Amino acid sequence: MAGVNIKGLCKTYTIHSQEVQALSNINLTIQDGSFVTLVGKSGSGKTTLLRLLCGLEQATQGEISFLSPKKERAVGKERISIVFQEPRLMPWLTVEQNMAFALFKEKDPLRVSRTVSHFLDMLGLKKFKDAYPAQISGGMAQRTSLGRTLCYDPDIILMDEPLGALDAFTRKNLQAELVEIFLLQKKTIIFVTHDVDEAVFLGQRVVIFEGGKIVEDVPVSLNYPRNPLSPDFFQIRERILGVVLGE
Ligand SMILES: Nc1ncnc2c1ncn2[C@@H]1O[C@H](COP(=O)(O)OP(=O)(O)OP(=O)(O)O)[C@@H](O)[C@H]1O
Fold first, then answer.
1. pTM of the predicted model, to two decimals?
2. Which residues pair with 216 in a beta bridge?
3. What residue segments make up the domains of the chain, in order of their start?
4. Tell me, what's the ipTM?
């Protein structure tokens, strides 16, 4: 595992010679093995931060470093994986093969089948292992995408609204499963969502973005699994909603 230390991070895009400051002076420390959710209105810079963290974009200024990285990984070789809103599975591969794809560098076929089988089990996909993406539901496809990520054994998992396209029932189920996976695996998870309830249900901290800046960092010191109907949950949710809506 690894945590992240972000110092003075800025990202400017240029659209038709007009500069857009997507992120300005972001300072954030995310501890190893913690679950952090990022919320904020559309265009506040959440996805840009994830893209910088996984190297899909270069920062204009500032730096990102890793905290307590795994000893067996060389510095700079931390494993970061990203899960998007859409599962991005390969349609010509089965559920099992899509997950195994994360292990294409692994030489030992037994290790591949053991790892894939473990996560197929954990995610309730065993019965569908031979199905193709077009033959499974959106929830199962997103579980397969998460399974592929877990097979890769990343130090840090970035999630960009991974449950955003699912129906409310499937979404609630997957939120609960994600908490269980987090408690079992203790990976560092950085999760972007527009849904404040989801952010409070999942995160140990909710970081609020506005106009490319962090405007508040709210600790959520409630035990898992959380009850969204409890007064403590309600109070934190209202506080965050107030900041996001600028009330
Ligand atoms: N590739 C790009 N080129 C130019 N501008 C970009 C690019 N990506 C993002 N931006 C701009 O950066 C700003 C932040 O965008 P970003 O996607 O990070 O916001 P967000 O908070 O993730 O929004 P949403 O919740 O809608 O996904 C926006 O003004 C957006 O137009």
1. 0.93
2. 208
3. 3-79+156-244, 90-153
4. 0.97
